[in-house]
Amino acid sequence: MESIKIGIIGGTGYTGAELLRLLARHPRAELRVLTSRQEAGKRADALFPALRGHCDAVFEVPDPERLAACDAVFFATPHGTAMQMAPALIERGVKVLDLSADFRLKDAAEFQRWYKLEHSAPAALAEAVYGLPELHREAIRRARLVACPGCYPTAVQLGLAPLLEAGLVDTRGLVADCKSGTSGGGREAKIGSLYCEVTESFKAYGVPGHRHLPEITQGLSGCAGETVGITFVPHLVPMSRGIHATLYARLRKPLADLRGLYAQRYAGEAFVDVLPVGDHPETRSVRGANVCRISPHLGPDGETVVVLSVIDNLVKGASGQAVQCFNLMFGLPETLGLDAPALAP
Amino acid sequence: MESIKIGIIGGTGYTGAELLRLLARHPRAELRVLTSRQEAGKRADALFPALRGHCDAVFEVPDPERLAACDAVFFATPHGTAMQMAPALIERGVKVLDLSADFRLKDAAEFQRWYKLEHSAPAALAEAVYGLPELHREAIRRARLVACPGCYPTAVQLGLAPLLEAGLVDTRGLVADCKSGTSGGGREAKIGSLYCEVTESFKAYGVPGHRHLPEITQGLSGCAGETVGITFVPHLVPMSRGIHATLYARLRKPLADLRGLYAQRYAGEAFVDVLPVGDHPETRSVRGANVCRISPHLGPDGETVVVLSVIDNLVKGASGQAVQCFNLMFGLPETLGLDAPALAP
Amino acid sequence: MESIKIGIIGGTGYTGAELLRLLARHPRAELRVLTSRQEAGKRADALFPALRGHCDAVFEVPDPERLAACDAVFFATPHGTAMQMAPALIERGVKVLDLSADFRLKDAAEFQRWYKLEHSAPAALAEAVYGLPELHREAIRRARLVACPGCYPTAVQLGLAPLLEAGLVDTRGLVADCKSGTSGGGREAKIGSLYCEVTESFKAYGVPGHRHLPEITQGLSGCAGETVGITFVPHLVPMSRGIHATLYARLRKPLADLRGLYAQRYAGEAFVDVLPVGDHPETRSVRGANVCRISPHLGPDGETVVVLSVIDNLVKGASGQAVQCFNLMFGLPETLGLDAPALAP
Amino acid sequence: MESIKIGIIGGTGYTGAELLRLLARHPRAELRVLTSRQEAGKRADALFPALRGHCDAVFEVPDPERLAACDAVFFATPHGTAMQMAPALIERGVKVLDLSADFRLKDAAEFQRWYKLEHSAPAALAEAVYGLPELHREAIRRARLVACPGCYPTAVQLGLAPLLEAGLVDTRGLVADCKSGTSGGGREAKIGSLYCEVTESFKAYGVPGHRHLPEITQGLSGCAGETVGITFVPHLVPMSRGIHATLYARLRKPLADLRGLYAQRYAGEAFVDVLPVGDHPETRSVRGANVCRISPHLGPDGETVVVLSVIDNLVKGASGQAVQCFNLMFGLPETLGLDAPALAP
């Protein structure tokens, strides 16, 4: 079968490296272009030796013509780049998957407020589809431009959607206490991400406001059909990969079968795993895998629901989900290239 | 000055080892008896080489006479032991500090419900003082028997007391999302505590009910003057030491100076550090130190207070707090032997 | 194509779990029997949630008939089990791959000396083939019983074989300074393997003598054609997976192209990767992958060769190598089911 | 008693922070000046929250007059700074302790070869005393300028000195296989030191040549009375603190009491701990403590000595050793302020 020609823009970060790892095993994807201004001329496996033997790509300076010759282009760049380059690619028939924040917030003013940057592609923004397949599968199939969700928003939305869609909980006073591995902070040289600063410690950050809050609010409000109010506190965990969202919601009325609600909502979903009653998911159970494991609990007070939702932030929270969307956009089986079990221990 | 003769019962766990470390530096404490049935005859520093050069103690089988000759005895045992042995020691004039759960819950029925064990010393239980000096200092000074608080309850109570004492927040719907290092699980050979099971992973546990819940409820209700309702979810962090409590409460009415409330409440407290506005405490900033660092935040919705409270579970959450109580009980300066800064990185 | 029926005896440890992970992706292997006396009746994915969705196996008590109906049986047991059960299986036409130490040492007396156990199957021992494909490929193809090498011996032999086979270094005074992740110690509840005992620390162990020493000596002596003398010191690294062997040998005479020697020796080997000159392999570059990455260096003194050799102890050092042998024994492509890149970070 | 006025130049790295921690507890030291051009105006405890309550110092731009008013000045700077500033301070009667490499190598040409920098203070270099008290105590007492040893050289020299001083081993073919925690790489924002690059991995580095090699050779040659030949391979361990040196030497003739040799050599040394026969030191047993624990073993071949030597690279390998030298230079008890036990777990 013919392969699908792939370009990756900005492949030197952790989500870029993860895309390379996943696409190296994808039976239909063929990497044609891999860009990085800074590393141009260098082999990808010189930067990421884990890929030796699996990836012959060499970083190059972005060339519009070479990118336009691709069938699909992934942006694994900081925010601000995709909105500059994506519109021209779409025009020329390239399908675009953006792993950055550029097209996640439907309201350009909200984007500007949180990212301190005017949105330069409002038309593309209007067209962009939010790439959470479990909530927007059909739209993704038809999309030319997919905005892949942030890592925290993926874990939170998958965790709360069943309750909000069914109108079972208060839409005010939600709490999302989230914990992330350090790769969520990116592969940038900064003091706060040093081994010695992170290991054997735990802390919250961004309590006064984090960029994923408006994305979470937008997504959950879509589920609820009304604007939700949520307090979101992210924390940094001394580990590389993994997000654990602990979600608190107040039941509007008693619910007989909480786990059943989740099992039914996610029946048929290949990448959402509702655990047996009473289980607690570990992040390592999804390490390297494109899956969200969820366990809803009724708290001891009988009215607070506690939902535990875990993903690998680099896979279901970023690159794996992007490949999942890619499969949908190209009419491929949704699980293609995404069927490896997690690596534990 | 004359030294105070100390006995430690059950010194082979992490809280026992931490007591040995702290008391080795305490200018007035003199360790006379260190018991362990299993390790009897072995030097403590053979078990804990970090103590080489600082501790000559040898484990011995518990001997009532030798214990009764001490001025103070610490129990660093699993629950069930102190309630058997403490009453006789108290009778003979020994002051007792129990680091286990035996005397924490004032209601013996509640103890039995959570610990599956009938309480064998109801009179001692009635007499026991809860050893959280910032809430019960004067009673501790006069106590013969102190029940040292659990690690989670310490972090949660210090974090929420100012709000509850002042009646500023709803007493229902409180949330304590707590994260603990692995030493909280003890130095027992069990699969779940193995390095390979814990490292690079994060999980919740005990969502259906954890033994620290009734202790937290009891303590907070005392602060509030009414029974509080709280959802408590503990999590396991891939680190040795440290507890981070992220606490959520709903303001009853707007509050002008949240940090000021905390600064005032803890003014003069040597072991509670209220951080500057906007800061986020890291657990490593208290590693090895007998201090609780707290940072209260007002959430983006303007009505949810988010309090961040960190301690070292083995120090302020256990052995350090026990020494703090010991100092109070013997009329010593409260900070004696507890003035070392934290070790970071 | 018809599938090959597989049995695994003792699947509750880390090598057992890794076999399950690897075989779940193997296109020709079909797991028929998975035994554990202790966990009989329990689903494998209840013990190892990372396998949820990838493995439906249920532990059962070993049943000779059900095992004899398999085409191949893997032993992932402590030493002493395979030598009891393997001979009968071989008799009945089952091919056996033993991941324990039972058939590694060709000299039964040497086995008894190091493992304190008389060897009960000397005939099988005589027949057993040492399962290091890069040294014994043809014998493995024809074998009925393969003794899969230990993790340290794999890293050391692959690292030193080119020098010894070519007679380039002194065969006395070799040094193998080896470092292993904690999963090498197994999934047993023991104090020394607890998270709090391992994290943020580093130590040597077994300096007076380690069971892998005779295996290393046997293997290297085979390469050299004479008995070698080697000092082997294992160390414990605060990580789950990975072995790093740092190997020291004295050149008998100057060598022009050290890297060329290695590149030529391992040309065509799918699972040995000789790094570019000057590189230093990281264990994470092989995490989860069946590959040994090697980098030979000439030391500053011009006469000491320093070889760096890394593997994942659970994959190329155990279960992956077993699957590689399995492929050879059944005439399958050697890389079948073993082509996933490493997972980093 | 009068306090000794201290200045610290460059207090923003890990050795600087460790000096602050240690001096905060030193009964005679009074910190007067703390410099950092980059952080001038900022409180030290804002950078290092673990120091809150123990250190009121504020970073300032270096001012020669204020530094000259100190009794002692510590340089915790990258190489190249101390050789510019130290001579003027010495002239003005200030005692200088340099934690950088500027005055470690007695041969200025050798310095230039390894550090790519011409030495600008050859007279001071000639005067400088190498600050390893166990080898040069008397000279340190009289010194105006002390060059504090590197971390690896400390562990290696203390480990091999007894054998070399006694002429018991070959002086050629020595091997120092060393492993260091990540804080040895400094508190600089660089990709290679990121948490995600370091955790759960292990690697060698600098095999072709490391700057500590000439320092080690110089020190060991001094012990042996002849030029030694040693192969030194450093490795990076996924932990913050700790160095483990595994040292290999060939006995010239059989030795009856290896441990006795060490015990006798280090009798009376407060900061060298020779372990019981057969023990293996763990780096965590020295975490935060100014001690080197050593265990010499005779290898299975009966002629190779394997010495295990561990220190905390930031304490006995840097700041603690500097304070030890400081005590000697000012006629104080050598252990003053350095008597805290290690922190484990």
From TrEMBL, chains A, B, C, D:
Pfam families recorded for this chain? Answer: Semialdhyde_dh, Semialdhyde_dhC_1
InterPro entries, alphabetically?
AGPR, AGPR_AS, AGPR_dimerisation_dom, AGPR_type-1, NAD(P)-bd_dom_sf, Semialdehyde_DH_NAD-bd
As for what it does, the entry says: Catalyzes the NADPH-dependent reduction of N-acetyl-5-glutamyl phosphate to yield N-acetyl-L-glutamate 5-semialdehyde.
Q: Which SMART domains match?
A: Semialdhyde_dh
Q: What is its EC number?
A: 1.2.1.38
Gene name of this polypeptide = argC
- GO terms for MF: N-acetyl-gamma-glutamyl-phosphate reductase activity; NAD binding; NADP+ binding
Give the reactions, separated by semicolons, that this protein catalyses.
N-acetyl-L-glutamate 5-semialdehyde + phosphate + NADP(+) = N-acetyl-L-glutamyl 5-phosphate + NADPH + H(+)
Q: Which family does it belong to?
A: Belongs to the NAGSA dehydrogenase family. Type 1 subfamily.
Where does the Semialdehyde dehydrogenase NAD-binding domain start and stop, copy by copy? 5-143
Q: Active site at which residues?
A: C151
Where is it mostly found? cytoplasm
Question: Which compartments does it reside in?
Answer: Cytoplasm
Mention any one GO cellular component term assigned to this protein in its UniProt record.
cytoplasm
The name this protein carries in UniProt is N-acetyl-gamma-glutamyl-phosphate reductase
Q: Which residues cross the membrane?
A: none
Q: Which SUPFAM superfamilies match?
A: Glyceraldehyde-3-phosphate dehydrogenase-like, C-terminal domain (SSF55347), NAD(P)-binding Rossmann-fold domains (SSF51735)
Q: What organism does the UniProt record list as the source?
A: Stagnimonas aquatica
Question: Top EC class per UniProt?
Answer: oxidoreductase
- Kindly state a single biological-process term from the GO annotations of this entry: L-arginine biosynthetic process
Keyword tags: Amino-acid biosynthesis, Arginine biosynthesis, Cytoplasm, NADP, Oxidoreductase
